[in-house]
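fyi for ur records
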Amino acid sequence: MSIFQLAPELERDCIELADWPLCKLLLLNDSQYPWFVLVPRVSGMREIIDLSTEQQLQFWQESAKLSHLIKAVFNPHKLNVAALGNMVPQLHVHHIARFEHDAAWPKPVWGVLPAVPYSEQQISEIKKALEVNA
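which gave:
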């Protein structure tokens, strides 16, 4: 069994927030959108169906937990949850809070504008808000 490693693209573009029982919780480093990524810490996974039945159940529990946290903290107009993997084949699932006033609305967020990195203070505030609402 190989050791889990985060895809280099995710490592480059994201901020690690936490390790949950199955997934690594990441924040995409683009302050234009509250954009989180769950990555199951299981090597070689490309699709949710590649996880064992128990891992799939745990993944959906963690996805629901994150979705509820995003709704509680950010109160989005819409929550987008997507597993594309076209550019990064490692299994990862995006959870993006969308607002009618955000930079890409109503289009998808991918590639619309260059990323605007978070400040250390913003990252700290997001971590705190997620902990308080967990």
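Residues 53-74 form the longest helix (22 residues). thats all i got for now
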